[in-house]
Specification:
The relative contact order is 0.16. 30% of the residues lie in helices and 28% in strands. The strands form four sheets. The chain has a seven-stranded antiparallel beta sheet. Strands 12-18-17-16-15-14-13 form a seven-stranded antiparallel beta sheet, with helices on both faces. It starts with 7 loop residues before the first strand and ends with a helix. It has helices spanning 20-33, 151-155, 158-166, 183-190, 196-199, 234-247, 306-346, 360-375; strands at 8-9, 36-40, 49-55, 58-65, 68-73, 87-90, 94-95, 102-103, 109-111, 130-136, 139-143, 170-179, 213-217, 221-226, 256-260, 264-268, 272-282, 285-294, 354-355. The protein is an alpha+beta fold and 376 residues long. The protein folds into two domains: 36-147, Rieske [2Fe-2S] iron-sulphur domain (Rieske Iron-sulfur Protein), CATH 2.102.10.10; 156-375, Alpha-Beta Complex (Naphthalene 1,2-dioxygenase Alpha Subunit, Chain A, domain 1), CATH 3.90.380. A hairpin with a 5-residue loop joins strand 8 and strand 9 (109-111). It binds FE2/S2 (inorganic) cluster and fe (ii) ion. Fe (ii) ion binds at residues 189, 195, 199-200, 331, 335.
């Protein structure tokens, strides 16, 4: 059921979806108050692996040092170049790509080429700024602020649910797509079902009934769990059989969609899970990164001949992957057709706008953002 059937006014002002000064203030407050995704555990699994990304405009490098994962601001103390370019790989030493200043494992400056030319040099004693880091599921998050509560404590039981669907699951596909609209428009579209019959008439046909919506709203996330019973059709029976054989679950769950504020999105069930994140790039530009995972096959039942027994399951999973990607990107394509027009409309609004029951997760997100912006 929905949590409320009451119509509510939008909390964010249309100007906040395109104005550059609002964008700067918003991103600054997000940096100061929020945990943000930076990379996957599976992108830095071994000693010396690194991953460098831009988070809310700030270059950050995550570095595996003999199993200890650390994150630093990726900006050189010499003349503020990014120390290493965005990307992932191996890093024996953190050496600036511009003039070669080197930093030790704890971010301290340890070598300056031709150092005799820097007599009387005085630099901040702490070296590079080290950032707070936490992880859950396959995800590494950083926080620029020292007082924000731990993300694990904020998530409560949701952390275990995400762990169950992403820890030990196999990452099969990554994708990145630049989109010419404000990041909040993409996020809001992902957490409401009101547009479904109009924008996705072929993919979804119509809404889920109200009683099939299990909505949960917390300070830091919203969750939709689909309560629609499995049908007695070929698809329903096929899915149930597959789930039983592959993961040993006799009563497969319907899909769950979770939004962890501000911009992490998850879609998962028994056999696969998808993580996608909408990164803010500019006031009217965002980047959607998506990661597709498949569940581990339950081998406990397939004792002696597990290799042989597993082959058909692996084959089914590999066939499932292109199908999943096809559906995901088809729905995304349908959404993108309308989102540019949504962006254009925000410049000449007809009012603040209103939100109905099918959009209550949008409201929770807007209220969160308002709190974050006020806190700054
Ligand atoms: S900017 Fe990094 S060494 Fe010069
Ligand atoms: Fe959609």
């Amino acid at each position: 059921m929905f949590l409320s059937l009451e119509c509510k006014p939008c909390v964010l002002n249309p100007i906040e979806y395109w104005n550059p000064s609002h964008y700067e203030k918003e991103q600054q407050n997000i940096r100061n108050n929020c945990w943000q995704w930076v990379c996957l555990n599976s992108e830095v699994p071994a000693d010396k692996d690194y991953c460098s990304r831009t988070v809310s405009g700030v270059p950050v490098v995550v570095w595996n040092q003999s199993g200890k994962i650390r994150a630093f601001k990726n900006v050189c103390l010499h003349r503020n170049s990014k120390i290493i370019p965005d990307g992932c790989g191996k890093l024996a030493i953190l050496r600036c790509q511009y003039h070669g200043w080197e930093y030790s494992n704890d971010g301290q400056l340890c070598r300056i080429p031709d150092s005799k030319c820097f007599q009387g040099l005085s630099l901040p004693s702490q070296g590079l700024i080290e950032l707070r880091i936490e992880n859950f599921g396959d995800f590494i998050l950083i926080c620029f602020d020292h007082n924000t509560p731990s993300i694990r404590s904020l998530l409560g039981g949701m952390r275990e649910e995400i762990d169950r669907h992403f820890c030990g699951w196999r990452l099969f596909r990554k994708n990145s797509k630049d989109i010419s609209v404000n990041w909040k428009i993409v996020v809001e579209n992902a957490v409401e079902s009101y547009h479904v019959p109009i924008v996705h008439p072929k993919s979804f046909k119509t809404y889920r009934l109200e009683e099939w919506h299990d909505h949960q709203i917390s300070e830091i996330f919203t969750r939709f769990h689909d309560l629609k019973p499995w049908s007695n059709s070929i698809v329903g029976w096929g899915y149930r059989l597959l789930t039983r054989l592959m993961v040993g679950n006799k009563n497969p769950d319907r899909m769950t969609h979770v939004h962890i504020f501000p911009n992490m999105l998850f879609y998962y069930g028994d056999l696969f899970s998808i993580f996608y994140i909408v990164e803010a790039v500019q006031p009217e530009k965002s980047r959607l990164r998506s990661f597709f995972y498949l569940s581990p096959i339950n081998l406990s039942r397939q004792k002696k001949f597990w290799v042989l027994d597993s082959i058909p399951f692996l084959a089914v999973q590999l066939l499932m992957l292109p199908f999943l990607s096809f559906i995901f990107f088809r729905i995304l394509k349908e959404d993108l057709r309308i989102l540019q027009d949504v962006q254009d409309g925000f410049k000449y609004p007809s009012g603040l706008g209103v939100l109905g029951a099918r959009e209550e997760r949008v409201l929770a997100f807007q209220q969160y953002l308002k709190r974050v912006i006020k806190a700054g």
